[in-house]
Amino acid sequence: MTLAILAVFSVALTLLGFVLPPQGVKRATLLGLALALASLLLTWGKPFAFGPYAVDGISQVFTLLALLGALWTVGLVRSGRFEFYLLVLYAALGMHLLASTRHLLLMLVALEALSLPLYALATWRRGQGLEAALKYFLLGALAAAFFLYGAALFYGATGSLVLGTPGEGPLYALALGLLLVGLGFKAALAPFHFWTPDVYQGSPTPVVLFMATSVKAAAFAALLRVAAPPEALALLVALSVVVGNLAALAQKEAKRLLAYSSIAHAGYMALALYTGNAQALGFYLLTYVLATGLAFAVLSQISPDRVPLEALRGLYRKDPLLGLAFLVAMLSLLGLPPLAGFWGKYLAFAEAARAGAWGVLVLALVTSAVSAYYYLGLGLAVFARPEETPFRPGPPWARAAVVAAGVLLLALGLLPGLVLPALAAGG
Q1: What is the pTM of this model?
Q2: Domain map of the chain by residue range?
Q3: Which of 87, 134, 139, 136 has its CA nearest to residue 113?
Q4: How far lies 64's CA from each of 100, 198, 299, in Å?
Q5: Membrane: present as a keyword of the record (predicted)?
Q6: In terms of CB atoms within 10 Å, which of 105, 279, 407, 415 comes out highest?
């Protein structure tokens, strides 16, 4: 049902967009995404399969996170061109497909369906965004080639294109490695992360919110299907948490800093992936989507383009609501109680300890402590003496979304059991 709703709204709005005003297309897009989300919740825990398309627990959990990011992105944008909303809708359709299949050919189609709209969204604003989008496109094409070659080798090793088919030997291991490269690019795992800082900095802030939340959810849903070698995952975890956190220390622009932060969080998510615990990964992603979405929602109200760190100074004095919301987002990303980010990291680290992955666990703990320097620096900057820069608060509904995300982070931090059973049923 979710797939049908997204497909029907995508096709219908492609045609109606030429006659409807842009705000009408925006409202229709929000309606389509909301209906898809409602159908997902109404069928929660009920598997469904039609050929290579299969809705299971993993599909439901990660589609839910992707749709939340898409709704938030469309809600934040006021574009005079209807194509923006269509691109988000098509990307959401690709994300749902990617999360809902084990068949490598359908995965490839889904990857392209979500990637092509993102290339266009990244260059929505000319100038530096064009350079960022070109880098994203070229590296994305290379990653897709790795994925396609991995699929071919997987078929050669197993005689099947369905992930989960048992195999052995060097050809099988190489196939899994290439698939991991293709999906690791979308998840922004090091060393496949080089596009991330430039694209985050050059893209419009609401688009960055979409990339940092929905795209990561879809990519990790696909990575859960790939039985990647534990040694390869451990290496990706180590590289991501080290590169992400250390590079973030030297950044002077908020979006670029949060880009490196997202690489580090991809490493922590890969730590949960290493253990194969979908519930821990799903909860971590939920807390990450809320906190990162909240941070970028605040940044989008400061500037749709670059946000130098100086622009955050004194935000609390200019707008107490946004200042407190940004502080909550930073503390949750850091993983401090009583916010939900604490339980996200706790579950991932606890599962790694159970699996005996002590080396990467210690590295993750140390780098998480390092991240306190820049997260606390960002969070406390909002209370500093304000810079003399113009500031105009966003619309009331955008502020309501900020409040809702902050309250959810606090509620899930105090009562994580509210959603853990649902994630267990779904994952």
Answers
A1: 0.91
A2: 1-139+203-227, 230-426
A3: 87
A4: 12, 28, 24
A5: yes
A6: 279
